[in-house]
Design brief:
It is built from one helix and ten strands. With 170 residues, it is mainly β. The longest helix has 8 residues, at 94-101. Pfam families: C2.
Length: 170
């Protein structure tokens, strides 16, 4: 199977919210999210004293290797000690990028073009989807809504929206 080149573009990740995160401190956790992809790291703001934070922040990453998953880490900000890890997850970009390679211009905005199901183990073991994830053609862009179950902790979900932003040819 030959892989078509990834169209020139950027990945816009909207970190929407965290749900039922692990409480790390007696007076409430101060969570923030770090996204890592191909040696790039970006992070959200810290939300004070909550295990159900709402960030609603857009972070942008350049995609150089479509087979590399985005790594997501959640931390509790601490003033006087090392920040506590509140879990991690990964999400595969391949399904989103496969849709970005297709000519979807004639499809009505809001159409679900693919559904990604959670899977365990095997080659796709990096997927942390907590539920089915829809990839939608929305106003000229491919958008994936994803709920990710955090690993290495008892509880926690992170809600992301991945948006492939095509760079117009010069």
């Amino acid at each position: 199977m030959t892989s078509e080149p990834v169209p020139p573009g950027m990945l816009s990740v909207r970190v929407l919210r965290g749900v039922n995160l692990v409480n790390c401190d007696a007076n409430g956790s101060d969570p923030y999210v770090v996204l890592e992809l191909d040696n790039q790291k970006v992070m959200t703001n810290v939300i004070k004293k909550t295990v159900n934070p709402v960030w609603n922040e857009d972070l942008t990453l350049a995609v150089t290797n479509p087979t590399t998953p985005i790594k997501i880490e959640v931390f509790d900000k601490d003033k006087f000690s090392k920040d506590d890890k509140m879990g991690d997850a990964e999400v595969d970009l391949e399904p989103l990028l496969q849709m970005a390679r297709m000519d979807l211009e004639d499809i009505r905005s809001g159409t679900v073009v693919r559904t990604v199901r959670p899977h365990r183990g095997g080659a796709g073991g990096s997927c942390c989807l907590a539920d089915e994830s829809s990839i939608v053609w929305e106003e000229g862009q491919v958008v994936q809504d994803a709920l990710l179950k955090l690993r290495n902790v008892a509880t926690g979900i992170i809600h992301l929206q991945l948006r492939w932003v095509k760079i117009p040819s010069l």
